[in-house]
Amino acid sequence: MHELGIVFYIIRDVKKAALENAVEHISGVVMNIGEVSTIVPEYLTHCWRWAADKEDLLRGSELKINIIPAVTHCDGCGQEYGTVEHGKICPHCGSENTWLLRGNEVEIKEIEVPNS
Q1: DSSP string covering 37-87, please?
Q2: Are 47 and 63 in contact (CB under 8 A)?
Q3: Cβ distance 107 to 7 under 8 Å?
Q4: Does 1 score more than 90 pLDDT?
Q5: Using a CB cutoff of 8 Å and minimum separation of 24, what contacts does 54-62 make?
Q6: Which of 15, 22, 68, 104 has its CA 20 to 30 A from that of 36?
Q7: What is the pLDDT of residues 24-42, one digit of tens each?
């Protein structure tokens, strides 16, 4: 389960941002996770709960996940299509000259702090 390692990196980056902005508590972290990123969202949230509650800064914080659909671009015809549904071969023209446009993201979108 690589999700635990990813959670440690998220916590590291969130702690750094909190320190730089004099934030004493984080109430939530919003992540953008690509549909084909190999991350299992349920595992990530489970690991988050375990690891975040060990940090005063993050205790009780919520991890929110936005799933970014995987979209592939075809250089053959210029069309875009759903990667998961069609794979590498373009359903519009049959070309294999395609590349992943989005859907592999793993990024912190927002860090939420409680209202004072």
Answers
A1: SS--HHHHHHHHHHHHTTSTTTTT-EEEEEEEPPEEEETTT--EEEHHHHT
A2: no
A3: no
A4: no
A5: 55/11, 55/15, 56/25, 57/14, 57/15, 57/18, 57/23, 57/24, 57/25, 57/26, 58/11, 58/14, 58/26, 60/27, 61/25, 61/26, 61/27, 61/28, 61/29, 61/112, 62/27, 62/28, 62/29
A6: 15
A7: 999 999 999 999 999 999 9
Q: Check residue 115 and give its pLDDT.
A: 82
pLDDT in tens, 54-86: 999 999 999 999 999 999 999 999 999 999 999
- Alpha carbon of 52 to those of 12, 31, 62, 92, 103: distances in Å? 11, 15, 9, 45, 26
Which residue in the block uniquely carries the two structure tokens 């936005």? 66
Query: Whose structure tokens read 């998961």?
Result: 84
Rounded-to-integer distance, Cα 1 and Cα 66, Å: 20
